[in-house]
UniProtKB/TrEMBL annotation:
Name assigned to this protein: ABC transporter permease
UniProt keyword annotations, A-Z: Membrane, Transmembrane, Transmembrane helix
Highest taxon of the lineage: Bacteria
Transmembrane portions of the chain: 18-36, 56-75, 96-118, 138-159, 166-187, 228-246
Length: 251
């Protein structure tokens, strides 16, 4: 518990986490309000549409998570921490747990705030959370944010440089996974196994396409919870590799 408290204090001792959380909230809620305002009878607002901005918030949260570890390497504070507590895996596990919990809470806040904003802007839209799919689309955002934070800490531990870690995370999520789908013959099948695509499947499966009334989804080889499990598996695997690497090399 002491180690968790230390990591919590270190996380919130700088301004960057606060700015990241506010930015994630502002981006997702703002985009939800814009989509709700532009919806019409021809393009009705859906529950999936209220969460259209979750990916922007996820990118910001992963930047925050990466900063939590790369900043320590930049200023050398990680050396002091490792000297005070030689089992490096315990330090990294505590840091990951704190960042994941904070990210998950931010994800839940942004998801329900986005849903509430859309409902306030377009009160006539049917946005009631009646079914399990509806709750998964909204409440599941927190799980995706928490898992994304675990992945970001792992990448940050491996790279140890803020610019490099952030570049890898953003380029992979926003560019590489989309470009993979353009590879002739195998691109579509390969893209189904991309981690962020799996996370998106978890949130959107069973929902109408974002901002439209009709469902237009690519069949996936796993169900929605399987998508989250796969995303989590990739994140944990990267974190394990990062912990093993941190144990073997100089801080």
């Amino acid at each position: 518990m002491t180690l968790l408290a230390v990591e919590r204090i270190k996380l919130f001792s700088t301004r960057s986490p606060w700015w990241c959380m506010l930015l994630a909230l502002g981006l997702t809620v703002g985009l939800s309000g814009l989509i709700a305002g532009e919806s019409s009878d021809q393009f009705p607002l859906t529950i999936g549409g209220t969460q259209a901005g979750y990916q922007f918030g996820l990118m910001v949260i992963m930047v925050m998570a990466a900063l939590a570890i790369t900043t320590e390497y930049r200023f050398g504070t990680i050396r002091t921490t490792f000297q005070a507590l030689p089992p490096r895996w315990a330090v990294l596990a505590a840091k990951t747990a704190v960042v994941a919990v904070v990210s998950g809470l931010v994800g839940e806040a942004t998801a329900f705030a986005s849903w509430g904003m859309a409902k306030a802007v377009r009160p006539s839209a049917d946005l009631a959370l009646r079914h399990a799919n509806d709750w998964r689309t909204v409440a599941g955002v927190g799980l995706v944010y928490a898992t994304g934070a675990v992945l970001a800490v792992g990448v940050g531990t491996l790279v140890r440089q803020t610019a490099g870690a952030v570049s890898i995370l953003l380029v992979w999520a926003l560019l590489v996974e989309n470009l993979v789908g353009l590879i002739p013959k195998i691109g579509t099948d390969v893209r189904k196994w991309m981690p962020f695509n799996a996370a998106n499947h978890f949130l959107t499966s069973g929902q109408a396409s974002l901002g439209t009334g009709g469902a237009q989804q690519t069949p996936m080889p796993y169900g929605p919870w399987g998508g989250l499990g796969y995303f989590a598996g990739v994140a944990v695997a990267v974190l394990i590799v990062a912990v093993v690497t941190a144990e073997r090399r100089d801080a």
